[in-house]
């Protein structure tokens, strides 16, 4: 199947997409950045190939974490695109705690978003993670022609921080993606400087339906 065959759509004012990886194989004995997609997560990513929003992609940039690369590869392979991997687009650095049980993780994540200028249990500060992801997106957009669509593939935490920046909103977990991952939003590259992306564009949408 050729790139975007049968799915070409009329593009709106947005020209960028940010997609989070879907479900992963959780293994407490493996560093979180090395987790891979579960069968469910891989299946959901493949269903994303049917969504018209991805049909006109010209570039794909992924975080260097395995689960993000595996998600991005689904689209790069199908559409015949080079996959650019950027290790600085990783999720917020949580290496100080490593794997946390779900309930404990949720409490620490709440504190991470709730105190963005404080390092919670040694985690990377939310304000620093936001500055990092905004900078990396800007670096890639500088090299990509303005009339070509870009898919950034990454993570829920930094994706939410980028979303807050694009919308001109204070960092707040209420802008986080739904549980499970595998959600995306769209934005125009100008919003990276102007911080005025429309809220409907920034609404999280599931990759698989």
What does this protein structure show overall?
With about 210 residues, this protein is of the alpha/beta class. It has one domain: Rossmann fold, CATH 3.40.50. The chain has seven helices and six strands. A six-stranded mixed β-sheet has the order 3-2-4-1-5-6, sandwiched between helices. Helix 2 (about 65-80) links the parallel strand 2 and strand 3. Helix 1 runs parallel beside helix 2 and helix 4 (about 125-145) packs across helix 5. The longest helix has 18 residues, at about 125-145. The two termini are about 20 Å apart. The model is unreliable at about 1-10 (pLDDT under 50).
Quickly list its features:
209 residues, alpha/beta, Rossmann fold, 7 helices, 6 strands, 14% strand
Q: How many helices?
A: 7
Main sheet makeup? 6 strands, mixed
Strand order of the largest sheet: 3-2-4-1-5-6
Order of helices and strands: EHEHEHHEHEHHE
What is the level 1 CATH name?
A: Alpha Beta
CATH topology: Rossmann fold
Determine the strand fraction and express it as a percent band: 5-15%
Radius of gyration: 16 Å
Helix share bin:
25-40%
Shape: globular
**Total individual domains:** 1
CATH homologous superfamily - what is it?
Phosphoglycerate mutase-like
Task: Sum this structure up briefly.
Helices cover 35% and strands 14% of the residues. The protein has 209 residues and is of the alpha/beta class.
Note the topology.
Elements: E1 16-20, H1 39-47, E2 57-63, H2 66-79, E3 83-86, H3 102-114, H4 126-143, E4 149-154, H5 156-167, E5 183-187, H6 191-194, H7 199-202, E6 205-206
Parallel strand pairs: 1-4, 2-3, 2-4
Antiparallel strand pairs: 1-5, 5-6
Helix pairs in contact: 1-2, 4-5
